[in-house]
């Protein structure tokens, strides 16, 4: 993924690349302050609890934007995008509707599980 033309302080892709590089090649613990700063978060905000779904969307949207007009521009859609087809046919009126929508995430109900906590245990 191209990161050379971007400001390293503000580029999430560059900051992620640096963290993964350091995890692989450094023997010391790897800090994430620069990555957190690239999100636009200050020190206080990094201690707040963030929704994992919102963070995932934030990261994927940012990475997809960074990859635009490059040879890897379709990577995020190829990995995460799906298509949903909706079909509605009225019983009492002569009407049919077909629609195709793109999605990046989908909510699934798991039979017998009422909440996310019960899914874990």
From TrEMBL:
<comment type="similarity">
    <text>Belongs to the peptidase C19 family.</text>
</comment>
<dbReference type="GO" id="GO:0005634">
    <property type="term" value="C:nucleus"/>
</dbReference>
<dbReference type="GO" id="GO:0004843">
    <property type="term" value="F:cysteine-type deubiquitinase activity"/>
</dbReference>
<feature type="domain" description="Peptidase C19 ubiquitin carboxyl-terminal hydrolase">
    <location>
        <begin position="9"/>
        <end position="95"/>
    </location>
</feature>
<dbReference type="InterPro" id="IPR038765">
    <property type="entry name" value="Papain-like_cys_pep_sf"/>
</dbReference>
<dbReference type="InterPro" id="IPR001394">
    <property type="entry name" value="Peptidase_C19_UCH"/>
</dbReference>
<dbReference type="Pfam" id="PF00443">
    <property type="entry name" value="UCH"/>
</dbReference>
<dbReference type="GO" id="GO:0005829">
    <property type="term" value="C:cytosol"/>
</dbReference>
<dbReference type="InterPro" id="IPR050164">
    <property type="entry name" value="Peptidase_C19"/>
</dbReference>
<dbReference type="GO" id="GO:0031647">
    <property type="term" value="P:regulation of protein stability"/>
</dbReference>
<dbReference type="GO" id="GO:0016579">
    <property type="term" value="P:protein deubiquitination"/>
</dbReference>
<protein>
    <submittedName>
        <fullName>Peptidase C19 ubiquitin carboxyl-terminal hydrolase domain-containing protein</fullName>
    </submittedName>
</protein>
